[in-house]
Amino acid sequence: MSTVSYHISSLLEKMTSTDKDFRFMATNDLMLELQKESIKLDEDSERKVVNMLLRLLEDKNGEVQNLAVKCLAPLVSKVKEPQVEAMVDILCANMRSDKEQLRDISSMGLKAVIAELPLSASGLSLTASVCKKITSQLIGAMGKQEDVSVQLEALDILSDMLGRLGGALVGFHSSLLSSLLPQLTSSRMAVRKRSILALGHLVPSCSPVLFSQLTDHLLKELAKNPQTSLTRTYIQCLATVSRQGGHRVGDHLEKLIPMVVKFTGVEDDELREYCFQAFEAFIRRCPKEMSPHVAMVTKLCLKFMTFDPNYNYDDSEEDEDSMDIEDGDDEESDDEYSDDDDMSWKVRRSAIKCLEAWISTRRDLLLSFYSSICPALLARFKEREENVRADVFAAFSTLLRQTRGGSSHHSLITAGSELGASRDQETAVALLKTQVLNQGFNACELRSEEKFKFHLPNFTLTV
Asked: How distant is the alpha carbon of residue 228 from its chain centre?
């Protein structure tokens, strides 16, 4: 017996001790050995190490369990394919266990194994074989409707695997899509959200046919005018798929845009937020293909960036003072509605982010943006929600950066520097000056600590 084999055998023997400290130290020593590049295990040692670590996953001591999981990652590159497959089989079986702790620890183990599977051509056989085993069992676990925790773990692992090894799962893409789509109608929101994440990871490596199948399914379901909760899920999925699908989304925009526009009219703040997130994804991934829809989408953004039905920005200081001396009866009625219930700020924020997407991707429309978007952004400097106001400033900053995009970037452009400014740039600056004067910053009522300075050719704007 070689020195390495003898040392490993000694550690394995200590792992069977009734003393948890002995088991912990032996497992820790094994982990350190496995992390060494030089270690080589014979076939018998491979089998014994794998069996022992899988056994320790059910150890009564949590620290020993955690160490056993940490050993699985370096073990992947130290044992042959049959042993890795054996690990995966046991871990997948444990995920269906009635013991929650064993399910959780086995899920961690599977994620560790997946993270270590080789991407090189030399290890492709192992990766493909292991992925095949895991995927077939995860598909079965996703259908286990009676135990939502099993579904959630399966979806988590599937997302990890698709995100890292999507190309190795091409043969399973169709069955994965068929298994994931029904999960979008789950009664559990957590299942729906993780299914959306998994679909997002599937999209970059799937075929154009499957991408069209997924998009057509979402359109078909949205056309049925489902209940608002399901509509939110489908629109959110559409936004995720669009972000991950890249230019392929452009082939479907003529059908997608009218559908999303339609649902902005539904009185539901969360749904509207998801609609504008979908618009933003369309714009950032397919800016040219979105050209026919610039006017419509911009109009919606301008409308909903001011959507604040529970607040009157025109109230004067006198009105606020008068409220302090109103009767207690009025205070009781005010308690019926809380700012915590107001989700309209999410709608405003998503609409503003959508406008920023237009500005950053379509510099060719800069002059028209100064006529339509610029005054709207300046007017929203009075926004009451800090998060939304920050997005207003961010969008306006993007507009300014686009304006000086043709000039040197090594320093800010200060007053008097006109070198290299194009005619469009000069026109844009003139429009900016006009818009600033028209708006009049006295109406913004910004506090002194909330100052922002923007530098442009011939013009410095301090807010």
From this structure: 22
> How do residues 332-372 score in pLDDT, each as one tens digit?
444 454 566 788 999 999 999 999 999 999 988 988 898 89
Element (H, E) at 381: none
With bands split at pLDDT 50, 70 and 90, how would you rate the model's confidence at 406?
A: very low
Mean pLDDT value across residues 393-416: 64
Contact between 126 and 82 under an 8 Å Cβ cutoff? The reply is no
Q: At residue 124, does pLDDT exceed 80?
A: no
From residue 39, how far is each of 73, 75, 85, 130 by CA, in Å?
A: 15, 11, 21, 23
C-alpha 264/C-alpha 232 separation (Å) is: 11
Q: Compute and round to an integer the Cα radius of gyration of the chain.
A: 29
Contact 247, 285 (CB under 8 A): yes
Cα gap 213→252, rounded to integer Å: 11
Q: CB–CB of 93/134 below 8 Å?
A: no
Residue 282 · residue 290 · CB < 8 Å:
yes
For the stretch 266-318, pLDDT in tens is 999 999 999 999 999 999 999 999 999 999 999 999 999 999 888 777 654 44
- Of the listed ranges 45-49, 173-177, 192-196, 439-443, the one predicted with least confidence: 439-443
**pLDDT tens-digit series, residues 418-449:** 444 456 667 767 777 776 666 654 333 333 33
424 close to 432: Cβ distance less than 8 angstroms: no
Q: Distance between CA 413 and CA 400 in Å, rounded?
A: 11
Q: In whole angstroms, give the CA distance from residue 36 to residue 24.
A: 19
Q: Indicate the burial class of 29 (C-beta count within 10 angstroms; 0-12, 13-18, 19 or more).
A: middle
pLDDT score recorded for residue 66: 92
Name which of 234, 239, 162 is nearest 198 in CA terms.
Answer: 162
CA–CA distance, 28 with 363 (Å, rounded to integer):
58
* 379-394 residues labelled b (16+ CB within 10 A) or e (exposed): bbbebebeebbebbbe
Place of tokens 């011939």: 458
- 79 contacts 46 by C-beta, under 8 angstroms: yes
* Long-range contacts from 382-387, C-beta under 8 angstroms, 24+ separation: 382/313, 382/443, 382/444, 382/445, 382/446, 383/348, 384/308, 384/311, 384/313, 385/345, 385/348, 385/349, 387/345, 387/349
Query: How many other β-carbons are positioned within 10 Å of the β-carbon of residue 459?
Result: 17
> How far apart are alpha carbons 300 and 352 in whole angstroms?
11
Rounded CA separation 234/275 (Å):
10
Work out the angle between the directed axes of helices 3-14 and 43-56 (0-180°, nearest 10).
20
